[in-house]
Amino acid sequence: MAIKARHKRFILIAIGLALLGLAAMLILNAFKSNMVFFYTPTQVEKGEVPKGTGFRVGGLVVPGSLKRQDDGLTVRFEITDTAKTIPVIYKGILPDLFKEGKGVVAQGKVGANGQFEASEVLAKHDENYMPPEAAEALKRAKEQGNGSLVAPK
């Protein structure tokens, strides 16, 4: 029994649509796995962050909070949005622009002890690079009269 030309076209179109759907699914899955959301220290403190997955937290490095460990690579510091402060631990070389009182974005996840364990630290040379959420949080805090960088815990 021979397949008619119309049926051959239908089969080819069906296979093409299936392959297109598979390609779209793979692309969307790749985007989803590479997506990293940004949160403020206030959102981290309130528990509004995803559990067990990585995210970014940003704000200002609290002056006087930077502590280097004896191994020379591990550092501890605190990030604030002037409303809340969270402790961060990072093992690696800090960027050249990293300074206390300046903006920073750390990527990682919250550990079992409640401390943010950063796998990457990005320093910004000015607040123009600050994500909109962090800039808004800083603006609200300044309007409320808490303009200092040392935030309550």
CATH top level label of the largest domain: Mainly Beta
Strand order of the largest sheet: 2-4-5-7-6
The CATH architecture of the largest domain can be given as Beta Barrel
Measured as a percent range, the helix fraction is 25-40%
Tally of DSSP helical segments = 3
Given the C-alpha coordinates, what overall shape results?
Answer: elongated
Which fold name fills CATH's third level, the topology of the largest domain? Answer: OB fold (Dihydrolipoamide Acetyltransferase, E2P)
Mean pLDDT: 82
Largest sheet: 5 strands, mixed, barrel
CATH-assigned homologous superfamily of the largest domain:
Nucleic acid-binding proteins
Number of domains: 2
- Distance from N terminus to C terminus (CA atoms, Å) equals 79 Å
Number of DSSP strand runs: 7
| CA-based gyration radius | 23 Å
State the order of secondary-structure elements, H for helix, E for strand.
HEHEEEEEEH
Unreliable parts: none
Structural class: alpha+beta
Strand portion, in percent?
Answer: 25-35%
